[in-house]
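Dear colleagues,

For the upcoming journal club I promised to circulate an example of a predicted protein-ligand complex. I picked one with adenosine monophosphate because it came up in last month's discussion. The inputs are reproduced below in full, followed by the predicted structure.
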Amino acid sequence: MQNIDSYNFKGKKAFVRVDFNVPLDENANITDDTRIVAALPTLKKILADGGRLIIASHLGRPEKNPDPKYSLKQILPHVSQLLGVDVKFAPDCAHAQSEVAALKDGEALMLENLRFYAEEEGKPRGEFTDDDEKAAAKKAMKESQKEFTKTLASYADCYVNDAFGTAHRAHASTALIAAFFPNDKMFGYLMEKEVIAVEKVMSNIERPFTAIMGGSKVSTKIEIIENLLTKVDNLIITGGMTYTFTKATGGKIGDSICENDKLDLALELIEKAKKNGVNLVLAVDAKIADSFSNDAKTAFVDVDKIPDGWEGMDIGPESEKLFAEVIKSSKTILWNGPTGVFEFENFTHGTRAVGEAVVEATKNGAFSLVGGGDSVAAVNKFGIANGVSYVSTGGGALLEAIQGITLPGIAAIKE
Ligand code: AMP
């Protein structure tokens, strides 16, 4: 494994896997460019050395090739502007030989969305009539993924992985490709920072350790919640997940989002928290709305007394106070997910209050790690990113790393 800082890229073609999976609005404007900005130090170092930069990323979840909605060409002008060079474009990532060959020292090229090819993820696309057909497709895919990876590797002299957001995936460009560069593979600056931040949280936990888990569904976060219950002192479960817990314990949740098949699970988690001596903190009140819209009629009620026809959209003032007290008494904080539907301006208050409490705790010496697309969007929206210790660009990757799972993207570089 090499070190990006001491590696000299002069005259070298560098394949850099970044995570430019940025949110776009309906007019293809980037609504949050955090992930691009975060990769700039790596890209600029390569260009400054006189390297030949090949930028590779995915965008969204395309189902076909090409899929214009997910074309990386849409973000090319912004990337060029941020990098300060005219970035060239290869419209087919698997047939970019001529564009790569035309690259000169200090020039940059961006490949079209890697996920236009199913080989990037290695999952065959389409419907299968039976298991045999599926197994055959999987086998064929394994072979074509090898070829795809080989092609990507053939473009370059060295490989840099700066895509923490996809480090938990063993994809062609995030992990498999590293094997082609046994002596010329390395982390980018962003990846290095992410790895250090995770190590800090996991190896050197100053207590109390509080995790704030928000978001819509228990089912997508169950593993991390179970894992956190063996590590934290306080676990704040918030966002849409709240109402599954409220209903499980006999509360009235009206039309709030709820996973009815996870009620038993919610009770088990409550029991597990008790057994482990973890202070499980749930909302006590809610800001409710009579429809799922920013302009809905609203009211504040106890979280377990939500009338029919109304739904919980954010936490209420009592919960804000409760959460803030716990957060401010913490020395290590992990925050993932909003307290409510923060995309609607009228339901941002709780998420903002949590953010402000995290900032205050950080001021008082706590180490705070914020991760996950929505939490990052929230801290940016509220202008408090500078007030927390570390904002991770990873969502799933961060959560897996925090659970102690070895991320394929990291292992492939370290091996
Ligand atoms: P996740 O993708 O699981 O991290 O969840 C993030 C999403 O949860 C955001 O888009 C929020 O709008 C949504 N969310 C948070 N609270 C609620 C709620 N009370 N009802 C419905 N959705 C919610």
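Two points we might discuss: The pocket of adenosine monophosphate is lined by residues 215-217, 220, 239-240, 257, 312-313, 337-338, 340-341, 343, 372, 374 (CB under 6 Å). The chain has a mean pLDDT of 95.

See you all on Thursday,
B. R.
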